[in-house]
Amino acid sequence: MTLSDYLAARRRDIDAALDRLLPPETTSPEIIHRAMRYSVFAGGKRLRPILCMEAARAVADQTPDLERVACSLELVHTYSLIHDDLPALDDDDFRRGRPSCHKQFGEAMAILAGDALLTLAFQVLSEAEAVPLDRRARVVGELAYAAGTVEGMIAGQVRDLEGEGQPPTADLLERIHRAKTGALLAASARMGAIAAGASEAQLEALTRYGRHVGLAFQIVDDLLDVEQPSAELGKTAGKDARQGKITFPAVYGLAESHRMAEEEAARAGEALEGMDERAARLRELAEFVVRRTR
């Protein structure tokens, strides 16, 4: 199966699982469930759950309740996108090619939809009863840390806001993006590995892999904001520069940023050198991250 076909198949599997896990739109209060589903099913690569599932498969042939672990990552990711788009943060009217949640449902409902998805993510994880209790506790901790204020997504968002208009420096750039984007991507690999019962050596390798993939992803995201039109991105292009964001192109320039993305993808592959062919898709995913166009 080609990588493109594989990704399409995994997205269908993940979407089906998310559909089962999210309350139906007809569940009262209906408007919040419509808003949650509107954002979750707006499209997207489903990269985080796919990374989680492939990290688990690199460790073990079967991991019961893996879909629940994987879907919790997508719920947290979608919550972060809803809140990022709010006027108080990145202020974007579009996400994945259609109006942002707050433009469709209003700011108050968008805030609540994000809160609800974050809350649901931990309910979903807590009900992954086929995952041994000690592993389940660890993946809950991993997700909470990756979303949190100490080197997690919120820490990265705070640094991003504080950095607006400041002189772009390499140190601040790395501190923002290791947390804002990289933390959840690294956690995706770690959570899959932990759920599958990885050894310490396997967990270390997959952690390094996830960190390099996370940095490559953010570098490419910054490049796409400069090089792609809004119609291709599905969100407003060029906003980073207009808002004075600290980005890889702002610090390093376009050519060096492209080189750095390639280097991070190569390092991700190198992290898997001690693993067998069950990690083949992970190697392909690292390449996909730097080749994507949206």
Task: Give the key terms.
mainly alpha; 16 helices; 294 residues; Farnesyl Diphosphate Synthase
The domain tally reads: 1
CATH class: Mainly Alpha
Largest sheet: 2 strands, antiparallel
Q: Stretches where pLDDT falls below 50 for ≥5 residues?
A: none
* Helix-and-strand structural type: mainly alpha
Indicate the CATH topology: Farnesyl Diphosphate Synthase
DSSP summary, beta strand count: 2
SSE string, helices as H and strands as E: HHHHEEHHHHHHHHHHHH
Q: Taking Cα atoms only, what radius of gyration do you get, to the nearest Å? A: 18 Å
Please estimate the helix content.
Answer: over 70%
Mean pLDDT equals 93
CATH superfamily: Farnesyl Diphosphate Synthase
CATH architecture: Orthogonal Bundle
Portion in strands = under 5%
Oligomeric state of the chains present here: single chain
**How widely separated are the two ends?**
23 Å
Q: What is the strand and helix layout of this fold?
A:
Layout lengths: L2 H19 L8 H11 L6 H13 L6 H19 L9 E2 L2 E2 L1 H5 L1 H20 L6 H15 L5 H11 L6 H11 L1 H14 L4 H28 L2 H4 L5 H4 L5 H5 L1 H18 L8 H12 L3
Antiparallel strand pairs: 1-2
